[in-house]
Amino acid sequence: MYKLMKRIYLLLSLLLCSLLCMSQVSTSQNYISTRTYTSPDHSGCREQVVYFDGLGRSSQMVDCGITPDGKDLVSLQEYDDQGRKLRTWLPAKSLGNGNYMTISSLQSGASSLAGGDAHPYLQTTYEASPLNRPVAQHGVGEAWAEHPVSYQYITRDPRSFSWLYYKIPSGNFLGVCTTDEDGNPTYEFKDGLGRTILAGRMDGSDPYFVYYEYDNHDDLVNVYPPFVTYPKMDEPEGPFATQSSYSYRYDFLHRCVYKKLPECDVIYYIYDHGDHQVLSQDGEQRVRGEWAFSLSDELNRPVLTGICHNSYYYDDFPLCETDVKARRDDTGTAFHGYILENIPMTDPVVYTVNYYDDYSFIGKHGVPTSLNYVTPPSGYGICYTESSKGLLTGTVTARMDATGVTGYDYAAFYYDERGRIIQSRTTNHMGGIEEEYVAYNFTGEPLKRQHAHTATGKSTQTEVCMYEYDHAGRLLKTKHKLDTNDEVTLVENTYDDLGRIKSSKRHGNSALTTDYTYNVRSWIKTLATDTLFTQTLHYNDSYGGSTPYYNGNISGMSWKAAGDTGMHGYRFSYDGLSRLTAAGYLWNGAPSANYNTSYTYNRQSNLTSLRRNGRTGASFYGLIDDLTFTLDGNWLTRVDDAATSSAYNDGFEFKDAVKQDNEYTYDKNGNMTKDLNKNITDIQYNCLNSPSKVTFKDGSTITYTYALNGAKLRTVHTIGNTTTTTDYCGNVIYENGVQKLLLTDAGHVTLSDKKYHYYLQDHQGNNRVVVDQTGQKEEVNHYYPFGGTFASAEKSIQPYKYNGKEIDTKNGLNWYDYGARQYDAAIGRWHAVDPMAEMYYSWSPYVYCVNSPTNYVDPTGCFSTKFGAWLYKLFNGGDQILKDKGGEYFVSTQVEHSGDEIGATVNRRFDWNGRNTGRNLAVEKQWDVYIADTKFQELCATHGMEYVRTENQSDAVAGMLQPAMQTIIPVPFIKSGNALINAVRGQKNVTTPVIRFGGNANQVYHTFRHTDALGLDRSLVQSMIRTHFETVSSQVVVGRPFNQVIRIGGRNIQYTAFKLSDGTFNIGRIHEIL
User: In terms of Cα–Cα distance, which of 785, 768, 958 is closest to 878?
Assistant: First the structure.
């Protein structure tokens, strides 16, 4: 009886806690209430209520108690008399604890929260036809009421346009012309099969179009960028593929076996019987007789990469009848514990190894026993014996310098019962260990992280980062403790009612508080840090005579840093492609030629001329660069400087050291191998196309060591008789063997005195002012639009500058290291082909940030961030491409579409997002207020891209540890040339259902707990269910469970699917039925 009463009391307690968490919804309305509990006793939760009208359409969405002061945010969706979405409103603030709001109250509240703006909604106008296609979208904001995005649907033959002089095949075409808020049109033409044939933009009357060519099997075979010569209207057809075009060839299963990128030799691909891309060979590998291999295990998980020297011909399809696998077997010493099946290897060199499921690899194959799990410090996550099933448990990563592979680093990863990394142990190239321990709260946000760095003969550096969140999961504080020193608060954030960062205070010092303001579209307007640094951005308003822009381009900006006697500024001009054409310098808002710049481009958007003014003396200014670029295709071959003045104090400028043809040369992968204007006579590259050795005319050298996951480990500068060695061990930086810096999320710590230094950044993450922990100025940087710094007499104390990237100035190198590529701000170009060049066919693969450096950033060197966000969205799902305070774009979730045409996207107001906060494990929870991102829509339309959504990798924690990278870009994308083509060519409407296996880590655990108990691998279960569900997803009805039974691992497994109101699917309980 006692036990019975005890259970009843427990149930009543849980019920009471749930009731305390529950909002008082309006029961007179149809609604769905969703609660996400934030504590194990159900005493706290985050609740969202969606109200539906009588026709089952969502009309209001309430995020209960979500604002910093605990009030509701309510958004409104209005429909026209045809049931189409008419107005999507920004949110209003409510006191109602989940209650339904009257329409008039919600509308007035939205206007009030938007600063009194009379147009706090996006409104869509449709054509008068059953197709429900939009003809105009008026974006959020009263200022945009007369500047809509318009859509015109074209049925006439595109060959009838006077500006179209390209020969395209005859047939039926459907075109869409999307005109942005500033009147810039973007065209896309599709044929009767839905394939994109022609896409591009207009700069005035000048067309910039990409032509797509297909074979008889509907495979894309050639892509011709705007400036490539291909058939004109009055010319016969023929083979027109050139050095600067894209070409693809396929096997009998439509897999890409041949890929030619601009300015690169052909890449070959070889597949096995199971459609695995096993081997590839680029132009440089072909010279060396190498093939790159990438092998999977029995569960199709990537396990081995490296090179071999086999003799294969790609068009012989040598592996098409065999299934190539790598199987775990401790006798496989040549391949670190794997044995290869059905493929011989000649002189193999292993680059990376992945281990899964268990830790039996430790102590074998060179993996040290120091990677064994250790009892964590008190308060950190604990490893459970079966928690690693189906997870990545260890890696082997080669280190490579100019001579080849020099050794390996090993890592082991340990997980808690929810599959979250709670401990990692990694060897480093300095003979030590990187140890990390993590503790999480109930909802999965990291609460603290301890990182210990050791190296042979060096002192141990132990840092602890602690994170505090508010009731909505927004990051409030990041605290930091180094060794036995006092704990400091690196960053303390406050938020406004819409969840945007309102202020950010560093080191607990009020003088180091940055305040932010935004316009109605949540574009950052001002940021100010006391008297140390202020910045104001102008978009649709004029500054210093600039032309207002409504499409998101920044029309002008002003800034002032510590020590300045006046206000710096720029007014920007763009062409019809949003390429920057001029930046007029302003002083106190008035024109001044001191730092003017101007630019011209060719049809592929390569720079053809650049003029740059600057400081020529202590108080004199003039023209320091008057550059003319000579190009061969996209290759820069020569630069001539007509300017006669030099920059003051040997400051930033182009150095025209020689006058000859071929001042720059390239290898077969498109990497620059010579820059005679910098006196560089040779540049060698590794297999990642990262530089491994730079040789100067005077005999000086710079050598690099990389881990083959892309991390830079060491740089050795031998300049004359002086050698300087810089080592990078995670966030600890050594110089000549002495611990120098420890990088933090807000700046760095000088390890000689354990003092904190902070970076005050602008909207793009450029380090403008460096201060110490007391607020004293230590360094000031002013930047040209493409990243060069104004000449100054001030001393530089640290190397992280533009976009927060490290610049190497030794021996006049002046390269910014972005990770994937090196950038030269003096000429505004990369030195290597963009690894993601196929994401934007109309642009040169050497172009920096699509020549709009005022509006874009490129955090990795792979692509401008909007394209990077698009790639993430492509593989992980999501909604809007939004920009945060650092200028970085990221993807929000939950998208709603109106119509099927490109650009016809009606985005909802806001939702949760996790974005990487740097090396930190804390995932900064941002609120994303609606932005009608028409620039991104134009880019998609221009390049034949469509909005594609696949599985949302909900388990990936941004910024976590290396294994999480595999959840961002799936291995098939990395491996297969065909996958990328299918992703971006946009000739078909992709309708892959968005499937989630649980909404958070707790739900994921309960989803799989039955199959886990049966010993079935999670990745196998997911793959089998996904494959099956894609064939039956059309049968699912919103609000009704959908049960299916399939055969997995010899068992009858039933899964339950639910279709949500946003069109996505959730897979719930998975269990065996007998």
Answer: 958
Dist CA 537 CA 514 (whole Å) = 15
Residue 674 and residue 815 in one domain: yes
pLDDT on residue 1038: 62
- Domain extent, residue 1004, equals 995-1072
d(CA 148, CA 132): 18
Buried/exposed 150-168: b ≥16 CB within 10 Å, e otherwise: bbeebeeebbeeeebebbb
Do 723 and 607 share a domain, yes or no? yes
pLDDT at 915: 26
Of residues 390, 393, 312, 256, the one with CA closest to residue 975: 256
Q: 151 and 107 in one domain?
A: no
Please list the residues that pair with 247 across neighbouring strands. Answer: 222, 260
How many separate domains does the chain show?
5
**pLDDT digits over 291-301, tens only?**
999 999 999 99
602: in domain: yes
**Claim to verify: residue 806 and residue 954 sit in the same structural domain:** no
**Contact predicate 295/303, CB 8 Å:** yes
DSSP H helical ranges for 847-927: 865-876
**Prediction pTM value:** 0.81
Question: Which of 976, 992, 1008 is at the close of a domain?
Answer: 992
Residues 151 and 233 both lie in one domain: yes
Give pLDDT < 50 ranges for the chain: 1-20, 231, 233-239, 866-992, 999-1003
Q: What are the phi and psi torsion angles at 419 (to 5°)?
A: 75, 20
| pLDDT value at residue 949 | 27
Return the beta strands (E) in 297-391 as ranges. Answer: 302-308, 325-328, 338-341, 349-356
CA 563 to chain centre: 35
- Same domain for 814 and 963, yes or no, is no
pLDDT at 394: 97
Chain centre to alpha carbon of residue 233: 40
pLDDT of the residue at 1033: 75
Return the C-alpha torsion angle 337, 339, 340, 346, nearest 10: 80
pLDDT of residue 158: 64
CA 132/CA 126 separation, integer angstroms? 6
681 in any annotated domain = yes
Q: By 3-state DSSP, what share of the chain in percent is helix, strand and coil, each rounded to 5?
A: 15, 40, 45
Say yes or no: 721 and 573 in one domain.
Answer: yes
3-class SS of residue 433: strand
Polymer length of the chain: 1074
Which pLDDT belongs to residue 80?
96
Per-residue pLDDT, 482: 98
Is there a single domain that holds both residue 982 and residue 1040? Answer: no
pLDDT at 26: 78
Of residues 1028, 1054, 1031, 1052, the one with CA closest to residue 1041: 1054
992, 1007, 1025: which is the final residue of a domain? 992
Instruction: Identify whether the C-beta of residue 1036 lies closer than 8 Å to the C-beta of residue 1043.
Output: no
pLDDT for residue 1067:
84
Q: CA-to-CA distance for 425 and 454, rounded, in angstroms?
A: 11
Strand pairing class (822-824; 815-817): antiparallel
